[in-house]
Amino acid sequence: MRSDAIKKGPKKAPQRSLLKASGLTDEEIQRPLIGIVNSQNDIIPGHINLDKIVEAVKKGVLMSGGTPLVFPAIGVCDGLAMGHEGMKYSLVTRELIADSTECMVKAHAFDALVFIPNCDKVVPGMVMAALRLNIPSIFVSGGPMLSGRFNDKPVSLSTMFEAVGAYENGSMFTANSMNCLCEVLGLGLPGNGTIPAVYSERIRLAKTAGMAVMELLERDIKPRDIVNERSIKNALTVDMALGCSTNSVLHLTAICNEAKVDMNLDIINEMSAKTPNLCKLSPASDTPIEALYEAGGVSAVMTELSKKNLLDLDCITVTGKSQRENIAGIEPKNHDVIKSIDAPYSQTGGIAILKGNLAMDGAVVKRSAVVPEMLKHEGPARVFNSEEEAIEAIFGKVIKSGDVIVIRYEGPKGGPGMREMLSSTAAVAGMGLDKSVALITDGRFSGATRGAAIGHVSPEAANGGIIGLVEDGDIISIDINNSKIELNVSDEVLEERRKNLKPVEPKIKDGYLARYAKLVSSASEGAILK
C-alpha cells in the first residue's frame, strides 16, 4: 500500500503515533487510507448538502474495509463573485485546488481518493489533481439544485441576472456540465451529473462511490487508465449533444494537459460537425436539468449517440466496467428532452470554435444558445476595456441594435483571472438586445449565458492579440455556422495601430493574481500555469 510509507515498520512508529493521536485504532491504521477531498463550505449554495455526501462516502469506504480521512478543498461561488473584483478569483482557484490536493496527497501517502466537488472550478480542479496524482480515484458530486418556479415557469440564477437587466429597462451551467462530463470521462458513477441534490438516491450514490473506490484500489485502476484520448473525445461529443457551457472547452483542454493527451481546438469543430445537438437545457430553454434526469440522464444521451456510433463505448470507467456495459438497457424516456438522433435540434453540436484575424488561435461560442438570427451577424464595434464599462453602457442605453460589444483585457493574463461575463450578457438579454447584439471578449462566459456571446478570444489583448487593436465603429463579421470571426480592418491599418498602441497598466500588481498573470497560458491552451 502507498500508505505503508507512513505506517509500516519500526521506523514509522512516530508517524503511527500521530495517526493514533488523531483517534485511529491499530485496525484502522492497517487498512487502506482513503482520502476524501471535500469542497464543502457554508457560502456556496450548491454545497449545503456536501456534509451528507461526505458521511455517505465514509460509510461506503468503511463497509468495504477502508479508513476514510477527510481533508478540504477551497471553492468560490461564481454567482456571488459575479460582477465585481471577486470574479477574478474564480478560475484561478482551479490551479489552487489541483496544487493543494497534490500537496495533501503526496504529504500523507493516501492509497486512493474520493473527490466531492460541486461548483464551477472545483470539478475541473479536482479532475486535474486526480490525473496528476494518478492513484485510484472516484468522483461523486453534491448534485444539481432543483429549479425554482415563478408564475408557473422554472427559474434559475440566470433568470435573476437577466431580471436585473429587465428592471433597468423600465441552469446547464458549468458545474452541472462538468459533473455530467465526469460520467462520460468515466470518473463518476452513472447519475453523478443529474441526480438532484435533494434526492435520497444521491446519498445512495455517494455510498456506492465509497465502496467503488475500494474496488478501484484492489484492481489498481487509476485515473489515467480511464481518461485518455478516446474518453476525452467521448466527453466532447456528449458536450456537443448537451449544448453545455463554453467553459467545458477551457477545462477539458486543461484536463488534457494533466492526462498527457494532446488536444487542438480544431478538433472541437470536427466533432461538432458530426454530433447532433440533442438537448436544449436551461438557460438555452426553460427545460431544467432535473428534466434530463427524469428522461434517463447522461446515460440515455449516450445511448442515443451510440445509435450512430458516435462514442467509443469500450472505455473503462470507475464502475470497473465499460461504458457499453454501464448504459446497457437504458433508453431516453422523453424525446422532448432528449431528442431522437434522427430528429435532433440541429445536426451539429452545441459548441463552436471560431477563427479569423480577430481570434487567430480561436474563440468559443455556445451555438445552441444563440438565436437563429444571430448565427450570422455584422455590425459596428463598441469597445470597452473592462466589464464594468460595458455594463454601464448597456444600462445607459448606449448599446443599440446591431452593435458588437467588445470587452477586452479580461483574459487569463489581462484580467487577470479571465472572469465570467454573466452580468454583461444577462444585461444584454434583460434589455431585450440578445436577438440583435453580439458580445465578444477575451474573457469568458458563464454556463448560464445565452445569446451571441463569443469568449476565450485568443490571443488575448494583454498578449498582443488583435482584439486589443479594435476601435469603436470597426465592422466585425461573425459567421458561427462557418466558424468565422473577422475584424474588417486592413493589415496596414492594424499595423499602424499596433505601433501607436500604449501599454495597458496591469490591473493587479501584487498577491496571487499578480503571480498568476506571469505564469498563465492562453485560453486556447486551457489557461493552465506554465
Lay out the secondary structure:
Layout: H1 13-21, H2 26-30, E1 33-38, H3 50-63, E2 67-72, H4 78-81, H5 93-108, E3 112-116, H6 122-133, E4 137-139, E5 148-150, E6 153-155, H7 157-168, H8 174-185, H9 200-219, H10 223-226, H11 229-242, H12 247-259, H13 266-274, H14 289-294, H15 297-306, H16 323-327, E7 351-356, E8 359-366, E9 376-384, H17 387-395, E10 404-407, H18 422-430, E11 438-441, E12 453-458, E13 475-479, E14 484-487, H19 491-500, H20 511-519
Parallel strand pairs: 1-2, 1-3, 3-4, 9-10, 10-11, 11-12
Antiparallel strand pairs: 5-6, 7-8, 8-12, 9-13, 13-14
Helix pairs in contact: 3-9, 5-6, 6-8, 6-12, 7-18, 8-11, 11-12, 17-18
What would your notes on this structure say?
The two termini are 32 Å apart. This protein has an eight-stranded mixed β-sheet. A four-stranded parallel β-sheet has the order 2-1-3-4, with helices on both faces. Strands 5-6 form a two-stranded antiparallel ribbon. Residues 160-171 have low confidence and may be disordered. The protein has helices spanning 13-21, 26-30, 50-63, 78-81, 93-108, 122-133, 157-168, 174-185, 200-219, 223-226, 229-242, 247-259, 266-274, 289-294, 297-306, 323-327, 387-395, 422-430, 491-500, 511-519; strands spanning 33-38, 67-72, 112-116, 137-139, 148-150, 153-155, 351-356, 359-366, 376-384, 404-407, 438-441, 453-458, 475-479, 484-487. Helix 6 packs parallel to helix 8, helix 7 crosses helix 18 (422-430) and helix 17 packs parallel to helix 18. With 530 residues, the chain is α/β, with parallel strands linked by helices.
